[in-house]
Specification:
2 copies of one chain form a homodimer. With about 250 residues, chain A is of the alpha/beta class. Chain A contains 10 helices and 7 strands. The longest helix of chain A is centred in the C-terminal third of the chain and has 22 residues, at about 230-250. The interface of A and B includes residues 182 and 250 of A.
């Protein structure tokens, strides 16, 4: 379907079409489209822009990733489809490993998503050989790589499911989530919860890298100033304000 | 995927899997899954139950449909997949025609969705032969049947897109929408806006039929008491209350 550039929500509609296409080549699972739709609804409520709260969380995330000993970015089908290139660029800057982990896991899909990331220029992508498990998860979603997520100190999980986010936090990982639902279990389980649309979040984090990579003192200050709970509460208030505002606009 | 019955959001997860299956047989379009996800997010914010506001709108909708001269229910892929049986049952009670109308229209998909409704027991489903158009829509989404939507006085549109909802209202139809987004253009274009999950809404409407079909005086009173704007505003307040409540629960 052709989307007019004049449409007020052009970008959202283009991404919607692109995600549907990604189901055909097996990168995105059909239920991944439903998850994308949930995200869309929350992004709509957030005004489809990065809030000050999100920006604070993104700064803290970059600082924490730069302080990490072994940072890993976990990539699933939706993440690869939406922001594969941006993820690769960020991983290079912060020297993080990239590991493919899927909610709907099969050897074929793992191979497809790893190969897709490689086709975008990623090197050394982990995930093909999951040789251990995250404790506390019963299903095959526990599978991960010893070299990657298992031994990581900081894990960035964009668009992750609640079970795994909670298990990673319990396992002692410092978890950074990117999730548009400010109330999801993933958001709640994380130490740093970025409530922002994925491509905006990663692009912002790349832009924040030059300043934060320069000085450890700045990173320490960003981290000590950051209060995840206060920040999340503020995101919720933003949604309520936006609802009220939209309700006023919508009056006949 | 097997979903545990103990899961707090069991029903939502089962529907999610069922909708994904429906993409394989062509009833649901891939972007229909994204739309379903958007609905899921709003339903989650509404507590996944029928609010008093929704119940009021449902009562008014049944009253209006029973007063109609030529009521038509417009059915798309998501509607057929989620609530095909319930739609058929309601259409029989209120003596409404059923017309298949698709956002992603092709002769093949029209045939599939009509045949699917027939397989569920529907008779005389319109949509195979769209012989006219709704004024004010440029694309082939304007197509409809003279005998159905074109000549209807009241049209029930579950899960409809904003363009068509607005065009139908401008064309002079009394529009009843079922849409979980209390701010969508569809919701705003409708005379009666039901902000509720589709299967709950239709099941409630069926349950309301005995009382409302009995007496015209009750129908008239229900309709004159109903204020769609006030009702919608109240739905928005409900979402804000729920966000605040969930935020409190989520505190560590």
């Amino acid at each position: 379907m052709k989307v007019s550039r004049d449409h007020p929500r052009y970008r959202s509609l283009v991404m919607r079409e692109a995600m549907s296409e990604m189901v055909k080549n097996g990168i995105v699972a059909p239920t991944g489209l439903i998850a994308h739709g949930r995200g869309e609804a929350f992004d709509y409520l957030l005004g489809e822009e990065t809030s000050d709260n999100a920006r604070r969380a993104e700064r803290a995330a970059v600082a924490l990733l730069l302080e990490a000993r072994n940072p890993v970015i976990s990539v699933n089908g939706n993440t690869a489809a939406l922001a594969g290139k941006e993820i690769i660029a960020l991983s290079k800057l912060i020297k993080a490993k990239v590991e493919v982990n899927l909610f709907h896991r099969s050897p074929e899909r793992i191979e497809k998503v790893v190969a897709f990331m490689e086709s975008l220029g990623a090197k050394g992508v982990l995930g093909r050989h999951a040789d251990t498990t995250i404790p506390g998860i019963a299903s095959d979603r526990a599978l991960c790589s010893k070299e990657g997520i298992y031994s990581a100190d900081v894990v960035l999980i964009p668009l992750e499911d609640g079970d795994r986010a909670e298990a990673l936090a319990k396992f002692g990982k410092k978890v950074i989530a990117i999730d548009l639902n400010p109330l999801s279990r993933t958001t709640r389980a994380a130490q740093i919860s970025i409530v922002d649309e994925l491509t905006r979040a990663i692009s912002n984090m790349i832009a924040m890298w030059p300043e934060l990579s320069r000085e450890e003192a700045i990173r320490r200050k960003v981290l000590s100033d950051f209060d995840n709970q206060r920040n999340l509460k503020s995101s919720l208030e933003l949604i309520c304000d936006r609802l009220t505002e939209l309700a006023e606009e919508g009056k006949p």
